[in-house]
Amino acid sequence: MKALGVVIVAGGSGTRMGADVPKQFLRIGGEAILAVTLRKFLPYASEVVVVLPSEQRERWAQIVKECHLEGTHKVCDGGATRFHSVKNGIEALGDCDLIAVHDGVRPLLSNEMIARGVECASTHGSAIPTVAAVDSFRVLREGRLEIIDRSLLRAVQTPQIFDSAMLREAYSVAFDERFTDDASVVEMMGATLHFYEGERGNIKITTPEDLDFAERAMKH
């Protein structure tokens, strides 16, 4: 089995949540969102790095103690952008065959989804989770809203998993504003991406409604 290093990026704030603490520290099922996310990867990872704003290290250390997660992961400081935060996390990892990058506020993914992603990346060198669009969409062009064929659209999620050497090489380049996620960084170097089936429940918790959904999901 290939060794999996995991970078969990947790640099968000509570702005859109209307909270007075960063959203990754809000609680679902009695634990901080970030702690729930971290636990999901521990059975699969040879090493985990949690990337945080430096000013949040003390708060996280208290949560780690409360949740008995001492010794399960490393912590490193985030950067000016998500790109720089992921880069810092990758550099903090030791030797591994695969690297998964995951949003700290996506705590609801299943064990099966993680296993699918690892299998896909082990076989193909990359694994990007997507889900088909279910809503109707229109695009604004020259003041008009035009219909888009939703069968052509996919929502992209995390964890995005890559061959370690390939991801390290991809993140050795300078920042580009066209980098929207890890897949876009790897694609810019000319690599072919491979995709696997994500999960509709694997939401990124951003709003109070998302938090309510996650709390309900944790009870079932």
Account of the protein in words:
It contains seven helices and twelve strands. It starts with a strand and ends with a helix. Strands 1, 4, 5, 6, 7, 10, 11 and 12 form an eight-stranded mixed β-sheet that branches. The protein has a two-stranded antiparallel sheet with strand order 2-3. A two-stranded antiparallel sheet has the order 8-9. The protein has a single domain (4-130, 156-218), classed as Spore Coat Polysaccharide Biosynthesis Protein SpsA, Chain A. With 220 residues, the chain is an alpha/beta fold. The protein is globular and about 55 Å long.
Write the layout of secondary structure elements.
Elements: E1 4-9, E2 27-28, E3 31-32, H1 33-41, E4 47-52, H2 57-66, E5 74-77, H3 82-92, E6 98-103, H4 111-124, E7 126-132, E8 137-141, E9 144-148, E10 154-156, E11 160-163, H5 164-170, H6 182-188, E12 195-197, H7 208-218
Structural class of the secondary elements? alpha/beta
The CATH C-level class name: Alpha Beta
Radius of gyration: 17 Å
What is the CATH topology? Spore Coat Polysaccharide Biosynthesis Protein SpsA, Chain A
Output the CATH homologous superfamily: Spore Coat Polysaccharide Biosynthesis Protein SpsA, Chain A
Instruction: Report, as a whole number of angstroms, the end-to-end distance.
Output: 31 Å
Element-level helix/strand string: EEEHEHEHEHEEEEEHHEH
Instruction: Categorize the overall geometry.
Output: globular
Mind telling me which CATH architecture this is? Alpha-Beta Complex
Helix content: 25-40%
Percent strand equals 15-25%
The number of helical segments is: 7
Total number of beta strands: 12
The average pLDDT is 94
Instruction: Name the poorly predicted regions.
Output: none
Could you describe the largest sheet, including whether it forms a barrel? 8 strands, mixed
